[in-house]
Amino acid sequence: MAKEFIIVVNAEEHTVDETVGYEEIVNLAFPGAPTGPEITYSITFEHAKEPKQGTLGPGGTVVVKPRNTIFDVVQANRS
Question: CA nearest 47: which of 64, 28, 25?
Fold first, then answer.
């Protein structure tokens, strides 16, 4: 049986695999949101397994703990 990992993205719980990536976190925070070079996202996290906290950028991944890894995602438009 696969282990479930429950993370919090913008105050909502989600079940994910142990390793999550930038694109997956953006999709959980803003399902169906437009993408492209003019749209960027700032992702910060804490209480992860590796690395423990920091900023997640495009192409990056985070290994989460079984519970309580927290992600905050903010959408920003490039000017």
Answer: 64
